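User: I'm curious whether this sequence folds into something compact or stays loose and floppy. Could you predict its structure so I can see for myself?
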Amino acid sequence: MRVAIITSSDSGYRGEREDLSGPVIAQLVEAAGYEVVARLLLPDEEQLLAETMAHLADQQEADLILTTGGTGFSKRDCMPEATLTVAERLVPGIPEAMRAYSLQFTKRAMLSRAAAGIRKETLIVNLPGSPKAVRECLEYILPEIGHGLEILMGTAQNCARK
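Assistant: Here's the prediction. I'll summarize afterward.
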């Protein structure tokens, strides 16, 4: 399955800060057998983020879009809004599960505004901005996301509950 990674960061986009979370995502998904087809570093601009996600989904360039950054309380954080703008169907269980799992490590997990949704046949998931939190969340959700993608793509063999 094909994955596009979008990092939302004004300072990263300007070259003032290194993107550390995008490479963590790439490492984890590639180890799980996914193909990274795009790695983008974009500013915290809601319309640009939404247009980019919509293009990736509408042109069937990615089966999964994983974003990092832009899910906090900063005035410029807008990734959840961009995601909700383009999502045709919401998948609230994924960010709920990430927040619940992350609360084991930090109470600040409750401050995440991450969202997830489906556009056409592409799943979009907002991950946290820090490399540590990205790793924790992605390792936790990735096995189940694979099954969700199989269902979305119509290739699932067994839909019975485990």
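Summary: The mean pLDDT is 95. The longest helix spans residues 131-153.
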